[in-house]
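Supplementary Methods S3. Complex input for the BIS(adenosine)-5'-pentaphosphate-bound model.
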Amino acid sequence: MYLILFGAPGVGKGTQAKMISNYFKIPQISTGDMLREAIRNKNDLGKSAQSFMDKGSLVPDDLILKIIKHRILEPDCSRGFILDGFPRTIAQAKSLALLMQEMQLPPFILVDINVSDKDILDRLMGRKTCTKCGADYNKLTRPAPENNICTDCGGTIATRDDDNEETIQNRLRIYGEQTAPVKDFYKKRGTFINIDGNKSVEQVYFLIINELNQLQELQRNR
Ligand code: AP5
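Predicted complex, serialized as structure tokens:
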């Protein structure tokens, strides 16, 4: 299965991608996580990406495409994968389509998760993340311990640099201008599933899995 989890910052792409990855046993590929790892490792990619990410702007397409091309050729992607946070521009979508064609892989299923801007702001302003293992804490669902020590791995819990109100508003504006138009690209080319993300994590997960299982059933019966 080849999936794209799509939607504005904070709609739950990462949360759902991890759960779907467990269910279908295919890897989650998060460009945001890969970039944050590069920043932690202080490598060339991290140095080039940091200033864009701090402002909430998009990292240039050529850098992103390089890491995606490399990643989807790895053996764990042979049965499919879940893209989380990619593609984010029409140019990225076009390059991905070419790559999939070259690799003779089937069209993507795009899962578009929708959440109101107010709820997005509440979620992102309430989020903290473990800087070591990436565990997610949130005032709304799983508050971080007062000492900010991760209960999963003992690492330090911190607020992501781009989770402040000004940067979140910029991320939302850029999503509307540059990323949302990517939906139309896939409406014409792949399978498009619309999901109401204004529900609990478990309810959203159930909605997505239900839709994907129905699709698989349809494909089997063809
Ligand atoms: P990225 O890391 O992709 O960030 P994002 O798109 O802004 O998404 P988030 O991780 O903030 O949110 P999400 O939708 O994954 O939600 P999550 O599950 O985490 O990108 C960061 C930056 O990297 C970009 O701004 C850009 O600079 C750069 N970048 C990345 N990819 C790029 C690309 N392809 N091209 C160019 N630049 C790129 O959930 C958020 C919070 O809400 C969590 O705390 C979670 O617990 C909570 N939550 C989730 N679901 C629910 C629910 N149903 N109810 C209540 N709370 C919930």
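Strands lie at 2-6, 28-30, 81-84, 109-114, 127-130, 136-138, 157-158, 191-196. Residues 7, 9-15, 31-32, 35, 52-53, 56-59, 64, 85-86, 88, 92, 123-124, 127, 136, 138, 140-141, 162, 171, 200-201, 204 surround BIS(adenosine)-5'-pentaphosphate (CB under 6 Å).
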